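Title: Comparing notes on inverse folding

I've been comparing how different people in this forum approach sequence design from structure. To keep things fair, I'm posting one structure and asking everyone to reply with a full sequence. Here's the target:
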């Protein structure tokens, strides 16, 4: 790597780290619940990830992705990761499909953050048809959709329902999902936990 390329890389790393630090400071001031949790993890620049991830000790971030986000979106992104931890999503998968589990957790977390007034980054999953459902319930629905549409997957099935091209588009997404709404309640100091890379299971990458 030549000196100019190394310099560009270093500048990106420094600027993205500053942006992450400022976002955490604002999160602490404006949303102490999330901010206090964020102070417990260390930042780690990870250009191999898509955006952010957290494992309970570390919050990884892609410097290039961070550089493209507004301050409000970075604040929401960090709150997203902290809510994954507060809900224990990184330790609750228990053998379930990791992709579907992460998608279910993202919907649950992002709907809560959207209701709380956070500005979510573009591309965050927050389907309002899952409102008031826990991550476990959303996973149940996504699993059913995956089984009904094995080639297109759950995401395509959701899109078909949204456009009305699916024969079951009028059905309630909640269906007969298993009970348990632990993620559907707004966070409080008593609950005290990423897409975005999702919450990584402890001890796993």
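Reply #1:
Here's my take.
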């Amino acid at each position: 790597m030549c000196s100019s390329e190394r310099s560009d890389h270093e500048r990106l790393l420094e600027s993205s780290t500053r942006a992450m630090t400022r976002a955490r400071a604002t999160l602490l001031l404006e949303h102490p619940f999330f901010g206090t949790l964020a102070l417990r993890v260390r930042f780690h620049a990870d250009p191999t990830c898509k955006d952010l991830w957290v494992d309970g000790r570390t919050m990884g971030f892609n410097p290039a992705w961070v550089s493209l986000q507004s301050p409000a979106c970075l604040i929401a992104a960090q709150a997203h990761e902290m809510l994954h931890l507060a809900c224990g999503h990184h330790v609750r998968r228990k053998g379930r499909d990791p992709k579907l589990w992460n998608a279910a957790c993202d919907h649950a977390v992002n709907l809560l953050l959207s209701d709380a007034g956070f500005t979510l980054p573009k591309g965050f999953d927050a389907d309002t048809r899952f409102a008031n459902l826990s991550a476990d319930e959303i996973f149940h629905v996504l699993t059913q959709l995956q089984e009904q549409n094995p080639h297109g997957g759950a995401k395509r099935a959701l899109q078909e329902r949204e456009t009305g091209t699916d024969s079951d588009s009028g059905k309630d997404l909640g269906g007969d999902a298993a009970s348990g709404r632990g993620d559907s309640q707004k966070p409080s100091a008593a609950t005290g936990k990423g897409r975005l890379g999702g919450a990584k299971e402890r001890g796993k990458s």
